[in-house]
Design the sequence.
């Protein structure tokens, strides 16, 4: 089996990986296409200390079970479904969970992956594979709405015009009285502007503490410091960034301005699927390049470049 394996921060392509054996409640999924995201890049740098097959944004076809033969996407958190956290409706935070391609579970950069059936969602027939791959990151943007962190009429500043910043802006913009996306790269900002959303280069941006909600999608340790300069008193900072490096933060301003800082991670798949199926998001402009899995190492190098948004891997076919 072909697979992209991370071990001791060393990324390798293998053609001899052992096929997975599904546990009880799991099925093997033949992966069709998968996407490289910022978390994958941070994992290579040492985030979470992960060893195994990377990849958690995917579309594929289960080889057994109730979705056999259908195209599916999959939630990345695989909970126990039995502990007190799961029973009160927070399975994404199950202390016993594994996380696809991130924590104690092999991921989607492989011909086959094993995943619990309960994590799978069927993809509508008319949604192309390259767009279905976006369900997981769109769900992460929808999580902000699920947490009720942005409300109708809010002013929202998004720091970072990359993959997640772009999707978050598209998902949240219909609610906002005012939205601005700030980033470092003109090409990425132009994609924001193409969606009818105001954008500005960080080099000319003047931070002012006026925004109701500031969302950090920078992928940088400095993102929260900029956010603190921009959020109004009693406003909210939403952290979407996960990075491998250490972070330090002076908390006095948080106390003085009574700033709320909230983490936001994985989100609901059904609203994300609906947004994509109803063609309410511009996804095609986000796809910078597509590689066969055999060229995965080159794809990772491409994905880390500043002038690139989403890089996808072709892995299998529907036949």
Sequence:
């Amino acid at each position: 089996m072909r697979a992209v394996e991370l071990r001791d921060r060393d990324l390798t392509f293998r053609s001899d990986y052992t096929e997975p054996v599904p546990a009880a409640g799991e099925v093997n999924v033949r992966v069709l296409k998968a996407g490289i995201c910022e978390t994958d890049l941070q994992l290579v740098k040492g985030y979470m200390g992960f060893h195994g097959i990377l990849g958690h944004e995917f579309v594929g076809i289960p080889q057994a079970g109730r979705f056999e033969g259908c195209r599916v996407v999959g939630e990345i958190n695989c909970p126990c479904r039995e502990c007190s956290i799961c029973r009160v409706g927070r399975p994404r935070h199950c202390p016993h969970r594994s996380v696809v391609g991130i924590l104690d579970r092999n991921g989607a950069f492989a011909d086959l992956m094993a995943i619990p059936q309960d994590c799978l969602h069927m993809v509508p027939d008319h949604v192309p594979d390259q767009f279905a791959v976006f369900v997981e990151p769109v769900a992460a943007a929808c999580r902000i709405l699920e947490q009720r962190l942005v409300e109708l009429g809010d002013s929202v500043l998004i720091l970072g015009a990359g993959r997640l910043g772009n999707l978050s802006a598209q998902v949240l913009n219909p609610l906002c009285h005012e939205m601005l996306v700030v980033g470092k790269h003109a090409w990425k900002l132009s994609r924001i502007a193409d969606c009818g959303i105001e954008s500005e280069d960080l080099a000319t941006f003047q931070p002012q503490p006026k925004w109701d909600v500031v969302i950090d999608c920078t992928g940088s340790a400095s993102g929260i410091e900029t956010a603190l300069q921009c959020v109004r008193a009693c406003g909210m900072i939403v952290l979407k960034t996960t990075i491998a490096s250490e972070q330090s933060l002076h908390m006095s301003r948080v106390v003085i301005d009574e700033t709320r800082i909230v983490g936001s991670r994985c989100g609901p798949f059904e609203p994300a699927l609906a947004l994509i199926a109803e063609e309410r998001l511009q996804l095609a402009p986000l796809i910078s390049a597509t590689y066969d899995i055999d060229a995965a190492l080159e794809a990772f190098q491409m994905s880390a470049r500043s002038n690139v948004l989403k890089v996808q891997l072709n892995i299998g076919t529907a036949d």
Q: What stands out?
A: The first strand starts at residue 3 and ends at 7.
